[in-house]
């Protein structure tokens, strides 16, 4: 006999289907495109979730800010996930926009709300002792202005064309997914749909999703697993074929004669 609890569980599972997730990602990606055009700064995908939302053109850079580094009572500057390459991106472009998302129940992922502010604060002179203790050569990572996080999401107005800030370099933390109230939910919409992709993506990757987005969104829940399997097989075959092609390692090749070894004397008989 079907119970109310089992029925609700089934309905919840169907609402979180791979098809609904992919449609939700495509919808949220439209906001990211608009935000990038408005902010006019490089787009950084916070791996792995953020990489799904940056569209077919991909991100200008990627980063790994882990949510657990921003959990309460675990606040710290991660010495394993330095993300120092972003300093050069920020300095060259007067900041950047970093994309992530989170599941239902939160407006911002912890990586955007807490981990990145800790990172920004740790890279100003007052708080660099932990970083300096690593003994790294930081001469190529100088900032002319301190970093300052700003936050935007689908429910916030987008700023005008990216101004140059005199006192700080903006790190625009952009949460891709909208938050829906209980009585205003869109059928099939999944907040933070790309989160924990290894549990639902059936092996699909962001790049293959965006290369085949129309076919994937048009497929039914029943046909989607076989379509994804076909696309992944084709991608692997193309990768293997590409690896067989000769690759030029250098534009020129210099050839010179080696000195001949002296003739060996014949042994006396």
UniProtKB/TrEMBL annotation:
UniProt GO BP: charged-tRNA amino acid modification
Sequence segments annotated as region (Disordered): 237-269
Presence of the UniProt keyword Iron-sulfur in the record: no
UniProt keyword list: Transferase
Stretches assigned to the Rit1 N-terminal domain: 12-122
InterPro entries in alphabetical order: Rit1 (IPR007306), Rit1_N (IPR033449)
GO MF: tRNA adenosine(64)-2'-O-ribosylphosphate transferase activity
Coiled coil: none
Gene Ontology CC entries for this record: cytoplasm
PANTHER family from the UniProt entry: TRNA A64-2'-O-RIBOSYLPHOSPHATE TRANSFERASE
Name of this protein: tRNA A64-2'-O-ribosylphosphate transferase
Biological source species: Ophiocordyceps camponoti-floridani
């Amino acid at each position: 006999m079907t119970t109310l609890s089992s029925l609700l569980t089934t309905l919840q599972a169907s609402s979180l289907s791979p098809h609904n997730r992919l449609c939700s990602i495509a919808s949220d990606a439209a906001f990211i495109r608009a935000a990038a055009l408005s902010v006019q700064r490089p787009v950084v995908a916070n791996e792995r979730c953020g990489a799904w939302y940056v569209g077919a053109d991909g991100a200008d850079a990627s980063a790994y800010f882990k949510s657990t580094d921003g959990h309460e009572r675990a606040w710290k500057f991660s010495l394993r996930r330095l993300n120092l390459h972003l300093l050069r991106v920020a300095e060259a472009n007067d900041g950047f926009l970093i994309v992530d998302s989170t599941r239902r129940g939160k407006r911002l992922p912890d990586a955007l709300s807490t981990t990145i502010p800790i990172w920004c604060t740790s890279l100003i002179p007052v708080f660099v002792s932990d970083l300096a203790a690593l003994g790294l050569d930081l001469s190529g990572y100088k900032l002319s202005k301190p970093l300052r996080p700003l936050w935007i999401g689908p429910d916030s107005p987008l700023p005008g064309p990216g101004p140059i800030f005199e006192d700080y370099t903006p790190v625009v933390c952009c949460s891709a997914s909208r938050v829906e109230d209980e009585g205003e939910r869109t059928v099939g919409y999944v907040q933070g749909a790309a989160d924990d992709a290894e549990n639902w993506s059936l092996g699909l990757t962001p790049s293959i999703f965006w290369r085949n987005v129309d076919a994937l969104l048009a497929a039914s829940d029943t046909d989607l697993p076989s379509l994804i399997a076909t696309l992944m097989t084709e991608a692997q075959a193309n990768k293997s074929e590409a690896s067989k092609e000769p690759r030029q390692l250098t534009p020129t090749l210099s050839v010179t004669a080696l000195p001949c070894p002296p003739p060996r004397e014949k042994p006396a008989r």
